[in-house]
Structures are given as C-alpha cells and as structure tokens.
Design a protein that fits this description.
- The protein is an alpha/beta fold.
- It has two domains: 6-96 and 178-285, Aspartate Aminotransferase, domain 2 (3-Layer(aba) Sandwich); 289-425, Aspartate Aminotransferase, domain 1 (Alpha-Beta Complex).
- Helices cover 38% and strands 14% of the residues.
- The protein contains 17 helices and 14 strands.
- The chain has a seven-stranded mixed beta sheet, sandwiched between helices. Strands 10-11-14-13-12 form a five-stranded mixed beta sheet.
- Strand 5 (155-156) and strand 6 (161-162) form a beta hairpin.
- Bound molecules: pyridoxal-5'-phosphate (PLP).
Amino acid sequence: MSDYGFDTLLIHAGARPDPATGARQTPIYQTTAYVFRDADHAAALFNLQEVGFIYSRLTNPTVAVLQEKMATLEGGAGAVCCSSGHAAQIMALFPLMGPGKNVVVSTRLYGGSVTQFSQTIRRFGWSATFVDFDDMAAVEAAIDEDTRAIFCESIANPGGYITDLDAAAKVADKAGLPLIVDNTSATPYLCRPIEHGATLVVHSMTKFLTGNGTVTGGCVVDSGKFDWSASGKFPSLSEPEPAYHGLKFHETFGPLAFTFHGIAVGLRDLGMTLNPQAAHYTLLGIETLSLRMKKHVENAERVASWLEGHDAVKAVTYAGLPSSPYHDRVAQICPKGAGGLFTVTLKGGYEACVKLVDSLELFSHVANLGDTRSLVIHSASTTHRQLTEEQQKAAGAAPDVVRISIGIEDAEDLIRDLDQALAKATG
Ligand SMILES: *Cc1c(COP(=O)(O)O)cnc(C)c1O
C-alpha cells in the first residue's frame, strides 16, 4: 500500500471491499460483540495469541479500517482510535507515565490541552513542564530523570506557529524519550511528523480529518520506531504485564507494542472508545482531505494577506505570510502550506474583537475549527478562558486576538464579510 501516492491512500488505505458482503464502502459494524468460533478461539483472543474481534470497547471492524488508514497516512506502524482528541492525548501518555513522572510540553498548545496538562493530569500524579519550543536549549534543560515524553503541536493552535519538529526530535533522541506531536491543525496532508522524527502522532479527528463538524474523535499513531526496552523507563511496555499473565508487550509485539497496549490495556480499561458511526463519518471525510486542505490553504493565504493590509488590524499570525517569523519553517515542516488557521490582533482590543465576532454573517461563532465552514472565536473569552492572561498570551490567545478557521467557501465572500464586520467593529 505504501507505494501509492497520498491521494490514493486517502481513498484506499485500510478500506478493502468488505470481506463478509463485498460492500464497497466500509460498512458501519453497529455491534457490541462478536461470536467466538469455539471456546479455544475465545481463549486465544483473550490471551492476545490471536488477533480478532471480541467486544467493541476494544476493537470494531469499522474502527479498525480507520486505524489502518490513519497509520498508513502518517507513515506509522499502527494506530489506536479513541473518542476524542483529548482522549488520544491521555491514551498516548498512559503507557509512558506514572505517579511522579512528567512530560515536557510546548507553551503553544490548544487551550484545552493547556488545561488538561496543567491541571487535570495532576490527579493521576503526573505533571507537565511548559517550555517555549522556539528555545530548544530550554526544552533540553526542562528534561529531568522523571521526564517520560516531550509533547508539541506541528502547527500550533490557535496562533498558527510552526514547531521545528526536527530540532525537537533531536532533543528527544538525545534524552532517550519519545516525541509526541499533535498533528491536528496540519493533518498528514500538510505535515507527516514521523518523517521529522516523531515517535507518536496524536490527532483530534474532530477537526480537518472529518472536516465537516459532525464527529468527535481522536487517534494515536505509533511510528513503531522507539525502543521501549532500552532504558527501563517504560515498564508498561517492556516489563511483564500482570493483567495478561506476565506478557511483555515490547518483546512480544515489537514495533506494534504501543498499538497493542493501547487497545488491550488502554481501551479495555480506560474505555475511551470511538464508536463505529463516528469512524464511518471520519472515513468519508478523509476521502476528500487533500481537496479540502488545498482550498483551506489557498483561502487562508488570501484572507490572511487581505487582513494584514487592513487599517483596523494590528497583526496576523499566519505562517504562510512572508512577514511571519515562522515563514521559513513552512518549507521545512509543511511545504504544501501553513494550514487554514490563524489569529488576528485588532487595534481596538477586546471590545473590537467581541464586536467583530458578533457582526460576522458567513463566519460561525463556534468553539471548533477545521470545518468546511469558516469559523471564528474570541479565544480569551471562550476556549482559553480558564487560562491566566500570561498563559493566554503564550498560547497566542491574548484578549485582543480573534482566532479564525478558514473554510472552503469562495475567498471573495469571506473577505467581503470580514470587511463589513471590521467596519462595524471599529466604527
Ligand atoms: C480540538 C483539539 C484538541 C482536542 O480534541 P477534541 O476532539 O476536541 O477532544 C487537541 N488538540 C488540538 C490541536 C485541537 O485543535
């Protein structure tokens, strides 16, 4: 399969005609359980000696097609789908972390991720150290004996900042740690983090992958390249697992160790399962990913450069603009473009931002991104509301900033709508 071009893989990877019926489109296997051939078959499945379907909290044929597709598109060895992007982040960290362990994360993250990492994971005894990933010496300095992973976004939401993944991978390699990259804003169409040295790639499939605002879903793709047994730091993967009669995941499953653990322990015991209907919508969405991302990028480039020239605008963060300090990294990290997401800083501050959001007609005011529809949100009063002003600024969501997710409509119509709304916001 991997000999084929990316657009061919979007359609065909994982999605053979249905083996039971010949159905050409992947059916929705709306079932909770699967009949065992006999007692021996059941025992082999439960012992992980044979791969098959037991119960849909762990595995489901529709979800399995999506997992194979995601692994192929990202160039990974395997993938685990789960119920949301946030679930994917917990699923990625779960086999690596333990009480007292920490993850070194970028200050430029989706607001919900900042909250998850700075607050909620502490209930598990885990912690996160936040660092500016433009300063790799600081990233390196933040790593200590108890660090178990490094986490960043390829194109960081909401600011559209681009992370030097090759440099981050070098730091992770030197420390013997896995690099986890949230590739939600870029999608594998724009960026393939494993080619830049990432160990794991996490996604919110809720966004560009499904692409039309119908699904909440997530995914963890494993490169299959990390040696979980080298340091003794990852006992869940290298040491005997008591819940499977002392099975050692890395020794038994090699490059699929993380994926098998994610399903056999992660989904089994944490239960953050993706449902087959959601997997089906996501599979439909992925078929048109290239067509959509191309238009998202074209539109974002036009709208961002128009906004940059507008009197009411102080700054536009889009890395696709020649004025962006991240412009050089576009060629290195995401050569097909800087995505469809950026922020706009208005001279009129908080008040003007709120008026702009209320005056737009085509843009929908929602807490989502990566939809075919153009979307807008004032992050400081919504998604990033739980953060301190300092955290908001670091995340590119200061009070005078509006986040825009450019859809695939006609760019002229989007510009016309922004023009009338900016006039009201500043008039
Ligand atoms: C939306 C988003 C998430 C969280 O995903 P959900 O599917 O909403 O749980 C994580 N990271 C990024 C970059 C996102 O945009």
